[in-house]
Amino acid sequence: AEEFGIKQALKDLGIKDINEGTSTGKDFFGSGDIIESYSPVDGALIGKVKSTTKEDFEKVMTSATEGFKTWRKMPAPLRGEVVRKFNDELRRLKEPLGKLVSYEMGKSYQEGLGEVQEMIDICDFAVGLSRQLHGLTMHSERPGHRMYEQYHPLGVVGIISAFNFPVAVWSWNTALAWVCGDACVWKGSEKTPITSVACQKIAARVFAENGVPEGISCLVTGDYKVGEMMTTDSRIPLISATGSTKMGKIVASKVAERLGKTLLELGGNNAIIVTPDADIKMTVIGAVFGAVGTAGQRCTSTRRLIIHESMYDKVKDAVVAAYKQLRIGNPLDENNHVGPLIDKDAVKNYKHALEEVVKEGGKIIVEGGVLEGKGYESGCYVKPAIAEADNSFNIVQHETFGPVLYLLKYSGNVEDALEIQNGVRQGLSSAIMTNNLREAEHFLSVQGSDCGISNVNIGTSGAEIGGAFGGEKETGGGRESGSDAWKVYMRRQTNTINYTTELPLAQGIKFDL
Ligand code: NAD
Question: What's the family (predicted)?
């Protein structure tokens, strides 16, 4: 790690170690168990944080609810100005933060920088949004009445995030929630606690310098038990949770018990349809980056390639040839394409998937395996694998969070391909490779892809912040980031004002006294 400047990055970000974890602003505390963060890159201990206890959590909630009372009164464009200043700091610290993301999570340095760039982009978006939190006006059916709607801040927003985008998902939520006037309590993944601390330090410093109450950005640390403190607490009207479908089902029911709101961003099982009219070169780049980028640990990673029988051998050969070029190793070294999986549990799941696909009748055409020896001491580096499979296999129906790609064959037309694509329980990202206008439009039509994200001639992986991000079915139905996703962080109020001396009732109802 040293040759890649990790120590300096931690220093630039002001990271010490122990006692940092829970925070209601610049003040870091926490009296629970110690969480140690080991890098999947080289297995080294990066740092330790203290987890949040029930008592710590109370302190956080008091600070957040109190802070909200002040923050909500600040005009939205002025809140936007604070987010702009926060963004200046992100720009200044892009390199050390990107490096830490790469080192703690294991994605390539380029992707680490890309993740910080996403934070910068969403902050820019949020600053503009701070002057555009529009409602509508309506015509009242009653004379001398005016009707309109307005959006008010919601309160304390709880954010639970996954390890694979340890910083961007937080900002997708917070940047919008902050300009909307909310306070945010964030529980990052217990697998990436140091990046959470780094982000909280930046936000807390900027907020303190600008007289923002400390509870507007809070951090809690720990595993699902700390998450449950959030999901069961009715002082948090909205829980935005990103992670596995298994987690989403638990979170959804806990929050529903108290009739709170959820924004769920859960697992995907994303496919690219390769039609007879596909451009092979583009298909290969899209499919290979989609399947092996971030070692297959993106919610939008390509899991299934659905290839027309007339193209099958050509595409298969090209993809297999491309896999031979892949360099696996330290993600901070820009010569490598594929870094490690997050931990040994992830390695176990990857190995399990390869065993299962064979048991169910699939055929491995690019061998997987765990790498050993120099540079691979963490035990988390695996070889991206490809298997020929059938969509009905149980293992194909489930998301394996690693670099395993399934090739599926279809015959007939795009409707047959769509049946396979939509024939899974998840509905996040989808793509079609075609130069045929009819196929492309059919794919995007009401009879087409059932996913939240549907692309033509680009892969499934990654997204721009300008669009609403999320998926259907077991992906959870939530939307965050661009478009009008901000509305979930606010409460809508319909107002009717009577400026006459009469009191006519709606629907012409008579009620004479
Ligand atoms: P995970 O479900 O194990 O954990 C995610 C977060 O949920 C963690 O912070 C964890 O502590 C918390 N959590 C777990 N159980 C909880 C409970 N009962 N109550 C409250 N909080 C709880 O997921 P992971 O392994 O960190 O991330 C990988 C998963 O996330 C994949 O399935 C991936 O597809 C998904 N993901 C989805 C999106 C999206 O936008 N749709 C984005 C990133 C990741």
Answer: Belongs to the aldehyde dehydrogenase family.
d(CA 421, CA 273): 8
Q: Helix (H, G, I), strand (E, B), or coil: what is residue 277?
A: coil
Cα(242) to ligand 1 centroid in Å equals 5
Contact 304, 287 (CB under 8 A): no
Q: What is the mean pLDDT of each run of 10 residues along the chain (513 residues)?
A: 87 90 94 96 95 98 98 98 98 98 97 97 98 97 97 98 98 98 98 98 97 97 98 98 98 98 98 98 97 98 98 98 97 95 98 98 98 96 98 98 98 98 98 98 98 98 94 98 98 98 93 88
CA-to-CA distance for 202 and 204, rounded, in angstroms?
6
Residue with the smallest CA separation from ligand 1 atom 1 is 243
pLDDT tens-digit profile of 417-464? 999 999 999 999 999 999 999 999 999 999 999 999 999 999 999 899
* 8 A C-beta contact, residue 300 and residue 475: no
Q: Are strands 156-160 and 145-153 parallel, antiparallel or unpaired?
A: unpaired
| 289, 360, 424, 447, 509 from 451: Cα distances, Å | 20, 27, 11, 12, 45
- Per annotation, catalytic residue among 20, 118, 265, 480: 265
Residue with structure tokens 């380029």? 110
DSSP 215-269: GGEEEE--SHHHHHHHHT-TT-SEEEEES-HHHHHHHHHHHHHTT-EEEEE----
The answer to whether 239 and 255 are in contact (CB under 8 A) is: yes
Which residues, 6 or more positions from 259, have their beta carbon under 8 angstroms from its beta carbon?
A: none
Element (H, E) at 401: none
Cα–Cα distance measured from residue 189 to residue 19, given in angstroms and rounded to the nearest whole number: 17
Among 145, 64, 135, 136, CA closest to 501: 145
Q: How far apart, in whole angstroms, are the C-alpha atoms of residue 37 and residue 15?
A: 13
Question: pTM, whole model, 2 decimals?
Answer: 0.98
Q: How far is the CA of 510 from the centre of ligand 1 (A)?
A: 55
